[in-house]
Structure formats: structure tokens, C-alpha cells
Design goal:
heterodimer, A: about 260 residues, alpha/beta, Rossmann fold, 4-stranded antiparallel beta sheet, 10 helices, about 30% strand, B: mainly alpha, two-stranded antiparallel ribbon, about 75% helix, about 0% strand, globular
């Protein structure tokens, strides 16, 4: 579905990502992990052409994304970003904006199909009850669901998510990721998600991409990527990696400075 | 936050009613008061009566001009607030009015308005506006980037420069020129001749139609540039086109009616208060309300201390400003 080849990009004349090679297959749930500033968000932004390409190509379903029109791209790729809507609008109005890429020329109003699709997305994300509430009046967890509902309304084949679980408590973190996993199955989506939380990434993703200073340090299954050597190298932090007794997925524990000293002695 | 917005029907009805009421009020008031119930019989009777010529030759042209200019300024305001995502932006923020004022002041000082009494002032005003638009644009557009902050800052700076230059011209010009310059700057809808009235009307309606093609893009832009791109909007191209539409609307209005302040700032806010964020409604509601508001203010300006006529800009400022502060304290605005 996505083939990234020898891709180097950045902002202005500054290089942020260099020499990225990455293939993502249809229907995969891929997590991007890595320390702050390692290029996770930039990699997502590259897929929607928000950064300047210096070298290499990104192909989406066989076509170079630079040759696609804005609308074409938006009909296929939806983004759940960290930009929260700041203007006063209802959840229903916000979710309906997701239909914009599908509007025909000179179509100004939603037709029945548009309304149906928006309502289906809201029903699926359990936001239909908030349809007439203003976005400024709902909670952080609910806003996240509304963002996902809008992305679904775009009827994409690829869903990009940038840290959808930051600022959420564990209930909502698991809720959002469970939802994304269900969506992936129901809508046959391919999911590319940037995550800070290594343990959530390990539990939910089929494959992980570990980024370090603008390069792909390692890519593979959670078991392959989450080993203490690679994590310690990328994050410059001492960690312990073990297995979740129920899911058998690896989990990562941090080791504080004092504990480290005590152990050395 | 309890203000639920009205739907399409109520929004349009209210703004059309307001426009009609302003129009009728304007038709009926003036030095020769014509009662409302007599307007239709007079129009039906046709030419010949003095009342008919007052209505068709004096009041109607002003109403049409007020409609076009009020609509243009409010439309320009709502478009600019949309592309800059900044509620403080108005048509004059970008220095367009300053440029036009400078052009007009130069024209008066050079005595050109006596050589070509009908055309010189609007032409010079428009050229001044155009010069500013182009310099703001060229300073901030690189091939693929639309520098929003740069636009605003350059615009504000050019405003300052041109207002200083106008002050300089005022300081060294003769007394009779002073009066003309100051009156031009204050703005008025007084007798610009049919050619100009038709021009502004056509420009304003045409711009309304063209900008309406971008109403959904404006909706997407209200989420921010990146989100708009994610929704398939070609942000740079859209912003360029909309910027030129707003500049054209402002430039034409200013060069014909002078600087009528506040319409382009206050009316979009009022429109947002009852039409919500949706530009599909907002563009039309803003245009109609702005048209009605300017017609109303102009009528007040010419009747309130008759026979002296006040500049329309004075009334729009006082009335618009105080109404807005009142409305803002009553309920929270849409931004």
C-alpha cells in the first residue's frame, strides 16, 4: 500500500528525516515509536505532503503521492492529528466536515449519503449522543473520539494517527486503541499510528517502526523491536523488557537513576 | 454558550428583512419626508412627480451604493477573518485603505481632481489600493508558501507608512485641499454617478458568487491550514484567490466611497453570532446584513443633524462599535 524509498525530507533547508525505507501492507496496524524529536510526527506529515521532499519517493497504492491531487489524497488518507478545533462548532458539524473531499464540484450541501456516512461514523465511535454538543463542552476523551469520527467520515483506506492517546487516562487509552483496532477490521483500514507509550504500541500493533534521530533504527514485530538494547540505544535510558503474562507481548519498564546505582553496587 | 444557532431559513429571513427594512427606512426619510405607505403609489405613478425623482434620482442610487459597499466590506471582512483565522482582521488591516487614502490625497494635492472631476479620485484611490495589495502580496508570497503572519504585519506597517504620508501631505497642503482630503478619508456615499454605482454593484455581486465557490474550503480552513490540507483543500491556491477577492472588494469600495470604517469588522462578528461558523450561510448573511447596516447608517448620517450631512463612517463607528460591545457583553461571540 505504501512504499517509501530512500526518502529524505525536512522543513526549509533543514533535514529532519533521512534515507527512510519502509513498506506498509494493506490492512496492517503499524506503530511508529521513538524518542521526542526522532521524527515520528514528521514521518506521518510526509505522507500528507506537509514537509518538503529532498530525495526519494513515497508511493501510495502504486502512485507517487506528489502527483496526486489534494482531493484524491484526502479521499484515501485521513489524519487524526493533535490540532484540536478551536472554533465553536458542534460535534455533528465537525464530523460532517470529513465529507468535504467527496463533495462534487458545485455541491454545497450534504446529500443523504453524506449524512448517513457521518452518522454511521458517529455511531461507531459512540459520539452520536454528542452530535449537538459543542466541542468546547465535551471532555478530552470525547474530543479524541470526535476526531476519529471525522477521519472515518472521510472513508479513507489509510488512517494516520498522531499520539491519539496522549493526555488520556488508561481507561480512555485502551478505549481509543480498542476502537481503532475494531475500525481496522470493520472498515478494512490500514493504520499507521505514532505512539509514545511503548507498552500500548506493543499490545496493539502488528509491526513497530523504531525511529531515532530521523532514521529508521529498527522495524519489525513488537518482539523483534522491543529489546532492551535497541530501546536503550534509542532512548538513552536504562529499561527492563519482560513479557505480559496474559498477552505474551513484550512490555518495557523504566529504571530510575537511584535504582540503577543501587543495582550496580 | 447557550446560543444555539439558527438554521438556513431563519438566518436568511432575518437578514433579508433587515435589509428591506433599512432600504424602506432610507427611501422614506430625508429632508422631504415620504411616508412609507405612499412609496408604492409614487413608484407606480411613474415619472413626473417631484417625489418620484427624489426617490429614483437621489435616494435609490444611494441605497444601491450602500448595498454594494456595505455588502462588499462585510464580505471582504468575513473572507479575511476566515483565511487569517483572526477575528481582529478587517478589510483595512492590510493597508488597502491607507494606500487608497494616500492615492486620493495625492490626487487632491496635485489638483488632478479639478482636471477630471468625475474619474480622478476613484482612479487614484484604486491605484493606491492596488499598489499596497501588490507590495503586501509580493513581500509574502513565495512559490508554495502563504505567510499569514507576514501578510498581517506587512499590511499593518504599510498602513502606518501611508497614514504618516497622508499626514505629511495634510501638513503641507492648502486649507481648501485639507477639507477635501479629510472628507474623503471619512467616507461617504454622496453622488458618485451611476457608472460607479453599477461598477461597485457588479464587482460586489460577482465577488460574492466567486467567493461562494470557496465556502466549503473556508469551512475547512477554520480548522487550521494543516487540517484543511488533510481535507483535500489546496490551501495556498485558495488563500491567494480569496485574498485577491477581498482586496478587489475593498479597493473598489474604498476608492469610490472613501474609508467607511467598522462595517467590515463588526458585521462579520454579528453574522457569526447568529449564523454560526458555517461559511455557506455566513457569506450570504454577512453580505446582506452589511448591506442593510450601511444603508441604515448612511440614512442616519444624512438625516440626524439635517441639513448638515455627517460622514457615514462616523455613524458606522459609533453605532457599530457600541452595538457590538453590548452584544458581546450579553453573550459570548463565536470566536
Amino acid at each position: 500500500m505504501i512504499k517509501i524509498k530512500k526518502y529524505t525530507c525536512g522543513y526549509g533547508s533543514k533535514i529532519i528525516l533521512s534515507d527512510i525505507d519502509l513498506d506498509i501492507k494493506k490492512g496492517e496496524f503499524v506503530g511508529i515509536i521513538g524518542p521526542n524529536g526522532s521524527g515520528k510526527t514528521t514521518l506521518l506529515r510526509a505522507l500528507t505532503r506537509l514537509v518538503k521532499t529532498f530525495e526519494g519517493t513515497i508511493r501510495f497504492e502504486g502512485r507517487d503521492i506528489r502527483e496526486m491531487r489534494h482531493k484524491e489524497l484526502a479521499q484515501r488518507i485521513a489524519v487524526v492529528s493533535q490540532n484540536l478545533p478551536t472554533i465553536i462548532m458542534t460535534v455533528g458539524e465537525y464530523v460532517s466536515l470529513g465529507r468535504l473531499p467527496h463533495y462534487k464540484n458545485l455541491q454545497f450541501l450534504e446529500d443523504e449519503k453524506d449524512i448517513e456516512i457521518a452518522e454511521r461514523s458517529m455511531a461507531f465511535t459512540d459520539t452520536i449522543r454528542l452530535k449537538d454538543s459543542y466541542i468546547s463542552e465535551i471532555s478530552g476523551g470525547e474530543i479524541q473520539l470526535a476526531l476519529i469520527a471525522r477521519a472515518l467520515t472521510q472513508e479513507p483506506t489509510l488512517l494516520l494517527l498522531d499520539e491519539p492517546t496522549s493526555h488520556l487516562d488508561i481507561t480512555h487509552q485502551v478505549g481509543v486503541l480498542d476502537l481503532i483496532r475494531r475500525l481496522k477490521r470493520e472498515y478494512e483500514l490500514t493504520v499507521l499510528i505514532a505512539l509514545h507509550d511503548l507498552n500500548l504500541a506493543s499490545e496493539y500493533c502488528d509491526r513497530l517502526v523504531l525511529m531515532d534521530s530521523g532514521r529508521v533504527k529498527k522495524a519489525g514485530t513488537p518482539e523483534e523491536v522491543l529489546n532492551y538494547r535497541d530501546i536503550e540505544e534509542a532512548y538513552k535510558t536504562v529499561v527492563v523488557v519482560d513479557k505480559n503474562p496474559l498477552s505474551a507481548k513484550p512490555f518495557v519498564l523504566v529504571v530510575p537513576e537511584e535504582v540503577k546505582k543501587r543495582c550496580k553496587r | 454558550m447557550g446560543n444555539k444557532r439558527s438554521g438556513w431559513g431563519p438566518c436568511l429571513t432575518i437578514s433579508i428583512m433587515f435589509l428591506l427594512a433599512a432600504g424602506l427606512y432610507s427611501l422614506s426619510s430625508g429632508s422631504a419626508g415620504i411616508p412609507l405607505n405612499k412609496i408604492i403609489p409614487i413608484i407606480l405613478k411613474g415619472r413626473g412627480t417631484s417625489e418620484f425623482s427624489i426617490i429614483s434620482d437621489i435616494r435609490l442610487p444611494r441605497i444601491i451604493l450602500g448595498f454594494a459597499i456595505g455588502g462588499s466590506l462585510s464580505l471582504a471582512g468575513i473572507i479575511l477573518q476566515g483565511i487569517f483565522r483572526n477575528p481582529l482582521v478587517e478589510p483595512y488591516t492590510l493597508g488597502i485603505s491607507g494606500g487608497a487614502a494616500l492615492g486620493a490625497a495625492l490626487c487632491i494635492v496635485l489638483g488632478l481632481h479639478r482636471l477630471f472631476p468625475d474619474f480622478a479620485m476613484p482612479l487614484f484611490g484604486f491605484m493606491g489600493a492596488l499598489a499596497v495589495v501588490l507590495s503586501v502580496y509580493l513581500a509574502n508570497i513565495q512559490r508554495k508558501i502563504f505567510r499569514t503572519d507576514g501578510f498581517l504585519l506587512t499590511g499593518v506597517m504599510i498602513s502606518f507608512i501611508s497614514s504618516s504620508l497622508v499626514t505629511l501631505i495634510l501638513a503641507i497642503s492648502r486649507i481648501e485641499d485639507l477639507h477635501s482630503i479629510i472628507f474623503w478619508i471619512m467616507g461617504s456615499l454622496e453622488e458618485p454617478g451611476w457608472v460607479f454605482i453599477i461598477t461597485v454593484l457588479c464587482v460586489s455581486l460577482l465577488c460574492l458568487v466567486v467567493s461562494y465557490l470557496f465556502c466549503l474550503d473556508l469551512n475547512a480552513l477554520s480548522l487550521g491550514d494543516e487540517e484543511a490540507i488533510h481535507l483535500g483543500v489546496n490551501v495556498v491556491k485558495t488563500k491567494k484567490i480569496l485574498f485577491f477577492i477581498a482586496a478587489l472588494l475593498t479597493g473598489v469600495s474604498v476608492s469610490i466611497a472613501g474609508i467607511i470604517g467598522f462595517v467590515g469588522l463588526v458585521v462579520p462578528h454579528f453574522a457569526r453570532m447568529f449564523a454560526g461558523y458555517d461559511h455557506r450561510r455566513l457569506l450570504i448573511v454577512s453580505f446582506l446584513t452589511g448591506a442593510g447596516f450601511l444603508i441604515f447608517c448612511d440614512t442616519l448620517a444624512r438625516t440626524i443633524v439635517a441639513p448638515v450631512e455627517l460622514p457615514a463612517g462616523v455613524i458606522t463607528g459609533i453605532l457599530g462599535g457600541s452595538l457590538f460591545v453590548y452584544a458581546l457583553s450579553k453573550k459570548s461571540a463565536a470566536f
